[in-house]
Amino acid sequence: MEEEPQPQVEVEVPCYFLCPISLSIMRDPVTLPTGITYDRDGIERWLLTAATCPLTKQPVPADCDPTPNHTLRRLIQSWCALHAADGVDRVHTPKPRADRAAVAALVSRVHAAAAATATAGSSTPQPQHQQLLAALRELRDVAAESDRNRNLVAAVPGAVDVLAAVFAASANAKSSEGTASAVRDEALEVISSLQVPEQCLRRVAETNEALVSALVSALQRSSSASRARAALLLERVTAAMPPSRLVSLAEQVFREAVQLLRDRPAVSRPATKAALHVLVRTAAWGRNRVKAVDAGAVPVLVDMLFDGGAERRACELVLAALDRLCGCAEGRADLVAHAAGVAAVGRRALRVSEAATDKAVRVLRSVARHAATAAVVQEMAQAGVVATLCLVAQSEQYAERTRERARETLRLHARAWRTSPCLHHHLQAVYPC
Fold first, then answer.
1. Residue pLDDT, tens place only, 129-150
2. DSSP secondary structure letters along 2-43
3. Which residues pair with 29 in a beta bridge?
4. How far out from the chain centre does Cα 30 lie?
């Protein structure tokens, strides 16, 4: 007779082995200055958004480095080993953690290796290039371990400046392509993983004029992963740059942003959104609008409005970008020249969000006011755009300013649209007289 399997005994875990945050067995217990012990992963995540002890609510210094509780960890390890037969997982000794001094020393190594590389030149691969690459990879591994380590790297004085300088120098290098591209990608991976304050990015962008051109170079020549990182960093850099710098951006910036949108099936969604943010942010100025239009932005944006799986935020950004670009004659001309341009904007006006409706109405008003040939006026009626504007004008679910823009657009060509039997009742509801 086969023996019946014995039911597994439920083991009661000592309460002081449990993390107060996760209520799970602590694998790397650390103690705050308040005297309370937590699992390292849980308390580090907590301290990213709160500067207090979860239990005592006492303030915790921003530079606090929790103290490892080795005694408690050994007790937990012994207890887990004793109850391994009851299904309790063993707790392994954690790897040594990077500290501020070690991270600062590693950044100094990168700086010194970069200086030696610049002195040696880049005509042929030198030992200095390999030393720089090795130091960058070590720094990358440290930063990849945890949010804590990334914060440590970002907190080292001058670390972001060093990484930006290394990235810019390698991205703009014309020789030693293999080594230079490896250095470029490693530096980009590290710097893009850091949560850099906006004021720090602004300072770096102002002192390192080659940074934007380096990002453009990375967008042109990198792997898909590095292109995505470059796009995300470009978004953050342009958001931090002052208007005086934004108005003089090179045409290549817009070409690469538009190319990212063209390549969206092979590009990550965050990178696509980053490219849209760059267009919306930079096209607030007339010269940049023309640069974006010349790069082919308008037909690409129109095509994106037909993407079936497009997210709500992506649609809002597309319409916001079109609103910017229709602020110039070239942008409006490209929109009406697209076979489905006006119809695509009208199609998305009611199906996304209130913000999208407002941007779509703004685009349609620009077209009706400045680019409304007889053919365009007829197209707006036939494509259902006028009916959409009538619905927006009458609906109380939209903001009054959006409704007023819709009414203003309808007034511009009401005489021509009233002659259409299909639209007469819509316009009559808006303008009874």
1. 889 999 999 999 999 988 878 8
2. PPPPPPPPPPPPPGGGB-TTT-SB-SSEEE-TTS-EEEHHHH
3. 39
4. 32
Distance CA 396, CA 387 (A): 16
Give the DSSP H or E segment for 115.
helix 100-120
CA distance 140 to 257: 26
pLDDT at position 176 is 46
Of 271, 194, 275, 281, the C-alpha closest to 241 is 281
Give which of 323, 421, 428, 326 is closest to 372, Cα–Cα.
326
Cα–Cα dist 276/261, whole Å: 8
| Contact predicate 25/17, CB 8 Å | yes
Residue 323 identity: D
Is the per-residue pLDDT at 433 higher than 80? no
Q: Which residues contact 430 (CB under 8 A, 6 or more apart)?
A: 390, 393, 394, 407, 410
Instruction: Report if pTM > 0.85.
Output: no
Is residue 298 very low, low, confident or very high in pLDDT (cuts 50, 70, 90)?
A: very high
Q: Kindly give the interhelix angle for 354-370 and 329-337, rounded to the nearest 10 degrees.
A: 100
- Residue for token digits 């002890």? 53
Contact at 8 Å (CB) between 297 and 325? Answer: yes
Strands 67-68 and 37-39, bridge-based pairing: unpaired
Cα radius of gyration rounded to whole Å, the chain: 29
Tokens of 268: 């990550």
Helix orientation angle between 329-337 and 341-348, rounded to the nearest 10 degrees = 90
375 token code pair: 């053919």
* Whole-number Å distance between alpha carbons of 29 and 45: 14
Query: Which long-range contacts does 222-227 make (Cβ < 8 Å, 24+ apart)?
Result: 222/181, 222/184, 222/185, 222/188, 223/185, 224/266, 224/267, 224/268, 226/184, 226/185, 226/188, 226/189, 227/260, 227/267, 227/271
Contact assessment for residue 230 and residue 188, using Cβ atoms and an 8 Å cutoff: yes
Q: Exposed (0-12), middle (13-18) or buried (19+): which is 2, by Cβ within 10 Å? A: exposed
Structure confidence by residue, pLDDT tens digits, 194-213:
988 888 888 988 888 889 99
Q: Is the dihedral of CA 176, 182, 185, 189 positive or negative?
A: negative
Instruction: Give the number of other Cβ atoms within 10 Å of residue 313's Cβ.
Output: 15
